[in-house]
């Protein structure tokens, strides 16, 4: 009965009178979501099959449809498309559980980037002249772009139309009398000159556009950000959220992002350069980005291509000890300002001395008491005498990251940037910079120590830097007996300029069996396995 009532409610909201395209369908959809949440667990919001719903610009809650405090809600797009303005995100899911979003396509109009053809380059002066392609927005003329990854330019070969694994960060963009634009760039002149010298007229570039200035985040009374301008679908402080059969063609930042959340599942989630268009890129950042706590995400039958950063990034953010009295600690969150501590009693944590590059041990949390935003008092089950103020703390994964039957193609950076233990099976990697990058060298991203990476029955084709790269800062970063990689039944097709199958630094326990290494271009790789 409840399901029928909610479906009837949706039929009222999405009535035949709304079939003609409205300027903004946001309020209509939000009303249906809010009503379904108020009905309690088991609610279903169903959109009209094949329809395009427009989500116009608005500053509140970064323009996103909000799902807050929900339990057992399903949003079934039924094959519909959500077409958003690039100043807005699409879904902000927070403080919820058992949520499913499925059967949707998401796109942006106008696009959050411009796509252009290079007219000329001048490596000596560090300038590049380009003209936007038809149908793409013009860049914003400015002499004050800051040195941030939201000022990135990506380059694409004119013949293969594949992304190059180098980029520049624009400083100024000016309009010329003939309708072309000229850009200058941040970074040292030698680096800029080297990148520009490799580009030729007719090559393409994409430039991210700064629409995000209009967006305003949503915070709760504790200061936590429930909606932030970080991902088209953002999940915060929630459990058991499933995204199924959802396709993204564009996004001004990441596609899917989860912070302080557990049990995320992506099933048949796709990030694509939109078929039937000449788009060279999909998203302006990661395809999916997880800041997990203890229950790692699961990805199956997903496809990623054309992202301007990592396709998938999975990590556990660190906290820093600022006070210690025996078993009692005061900690502060170490990641960006949009994120908060999400630890719970009973969780296992690890300790790491970043300055000395040493693993210091493990403990179990007895209690967690938030004292203010991004700060908490915690008590350990037992004292760890080796730790002191300044030491980093990470929650330990209770489950493995699982990636299976996925495809990663032609993204700018890493296909899988992975910090916790993972099992990766039956997955195809092609024309990415690094296919599987298990690296821990920053003060923010962990956990430390990282865990075992199991890779089975995977294919690696033309990876730019390396197919699999493993890195920890020192042997002392790992507990005794740690194992880094178990690689089996996989195939590598390398070329002369990217001929590394596996590269490891300071790692122990690397087991390789039943793999094949072939050449893509007839030049055999000289050192496909490298250990340092």
What would your notes on this structure say?
Among the domains are: 2-110 and 213-285, no CATH class; 113-208, Thrombin, subunit H, CATH 2.40.10; 318-395, Thrombin, subunit H. The protein is 7% helix and 46% strand. The strands form five sheets. Strands 3, 5, 15, 17, 19, 22, 31, 34, 35, 38, 40 and 42 form a twelve-stranded mixed β-sheet that branches. The protein has a ten-stranded parallel β-barrel with strand order 18-20-29-32-36-39-37-33-30-21. It has a six-stranded antiparallel β-barrel with strand order 7-8-11-10-9-12. A hairpin with a 5-residue loop joins strand 13 (218-219) and strand 14. Helix 1 (2-13) runs antiparallel to helix 2 (26-39).
Q: TL;DR?
A:
The chain has 532 residues and is mainly beta.
Topology:
Blueprint: H1 2-13, H2 26-39, E1 44-46, E2 52-55, E3 65-68, E4 74-84, E5 91-94, E6 97-108, E7 113-122, E8 127-132, E9 152-156, E10 163-175, E11 181-185, H3 189-197, E12 204-208, E13 218-219, E14 225-227, E15 231-236, E16 239-248, E17 254-259, E18 265-271, E19 288-291, E20 298-300, E21 303-305, E22 312-317, E23 319-325, E24 328-333, E25 348-353, E26 358-372, E27 375-380, E28 392-395, E29 401-404, E30 407-409, E31 414-418, E32 422-425, E33 428-430, E34 434-439, E35 445-446, E36 453-456, E37 459-461, E38 466-471, E39 485-494, E40 502-505, E41 510-519, E42 529-531
Parallel strand pairs: 1-4, 2-4, 3-5, 4-6, 5-15, 6-16, 15-17, 16-18, 17-19, 18-20, 18-21, 19-22, 20-29, 21-30, 22-31, 29-32, 30-33, 31-34, 32-36, 33-37, 34-38, 36-39, 37-39, 38-40, 39-41, 40-42
Antiparallel strand pairs: 7-8, 7-12, 8-11, 9-10, 9-12, 10-11, 13-14, 22-35, 23-24, 23-28, 24-27, 25-26, 25-28, 26-27
């Amino acid at each position: 009965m409840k399901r029928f009532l909610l479906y009837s409610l949706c039929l009222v909201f999405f009535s035949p009178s709304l079939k003609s395209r409205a300027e903004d369908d946001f309020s209509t959809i939000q009303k249906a979501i809010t009503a379904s949440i108020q009905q309690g667990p088991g609610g279903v919001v169903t959109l009209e099959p094949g329809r395009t719903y427009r989500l116009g610009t608005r500053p509140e809650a970064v323009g996103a449809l909000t799902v807050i405090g929900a339990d057992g809600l399903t949003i079934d797009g039924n094959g519909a498309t959500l077409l958003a303005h690039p100043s807005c995100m699409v879904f902000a899911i927070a403080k919820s559980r058992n949520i499913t979003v499925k059967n949707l396509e998401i796109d942006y109009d106008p696009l959050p980037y411009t796509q252009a053809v290079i007219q000329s380059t001048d490596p000596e002066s560090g300038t590049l002249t380009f003209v936007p392609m038809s149908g793409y927005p013009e860049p914003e003329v400015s002499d004050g772009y800051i040195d941030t990854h939201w000022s990135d330019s990506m380059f694409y070969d004119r013949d293969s139309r594949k992304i190059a694994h180098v980029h520049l960060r624009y400083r100024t963009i000016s309009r010329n009398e003939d309708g072309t634009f000229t850009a200058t760039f941040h970074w040292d002149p030698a680096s800029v000159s080297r990148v520009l010298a490799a580009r030729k007229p007719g090559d393409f570039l994409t430039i991210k556009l700064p629409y995000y200035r209009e967006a305003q985040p949503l915070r709760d009374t504790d200061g936590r950000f429930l909606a932030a301008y970080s991902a088209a679908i953002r999940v915060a402080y929630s459990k058991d959220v499933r995204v199924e059969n959802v396709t993204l063609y564009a996004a001004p930042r990441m596609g899917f992002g989860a912070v302080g959340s557990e049990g995320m599942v992506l099933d048949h989630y796709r990030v694509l350069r939109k078929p039937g268009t000449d788009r060279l890129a999909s998203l302006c950042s990661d395809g999916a980005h997880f800041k997990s706590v203890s229950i790692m995400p699961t990805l199956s039958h997903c496809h990623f291509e054309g992202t301007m950063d990592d396709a998938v990034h999975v990590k556990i953010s660190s906290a820093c000890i600022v006070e210690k009295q025996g078993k009692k600690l005061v900690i502060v969150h170490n990641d960006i300002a949009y994120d908060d501590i999400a630890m719970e009693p009973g969780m296992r944590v690890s300790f790491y001395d970043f300055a000395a590059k040493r693993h210091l041990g493990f403990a179990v949390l007895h209690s967690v008491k938030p004292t203010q935003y991004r700060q908490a008092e915690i008590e350990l089950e037992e004292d760890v005498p080796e730790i002191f103020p300044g030491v980093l703390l990470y929650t330990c994964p209770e489950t493995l990251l699982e990636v299976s039957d996925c495809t990663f193609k032609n993204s700018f950076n890493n296909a899988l940037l992975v910090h916790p233990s993972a099992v990766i099976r039956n997955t195809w990697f092609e024309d990415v910079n690094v296919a599987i990058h298990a690296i821990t060298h920053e003060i923010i991203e962990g956990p430390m120590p990282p865990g075992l990476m199991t890779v089975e029955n995977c294919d690696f084709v033309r990876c730019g830097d390396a197919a699999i790269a493993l890195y920890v800062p020192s042997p002392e970063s790992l507990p005794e007996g740690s194992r880094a990689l178990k690689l089996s039944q996989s195939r590598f097709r390398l070329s002369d300029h990217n001929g590394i199958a596996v590269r490891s630094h300071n790692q122990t326990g690397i087991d390789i069996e039943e793999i094949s290494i072939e050449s893509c271009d007839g030049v055999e790789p000289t050192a496909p396995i490298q250990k340092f």
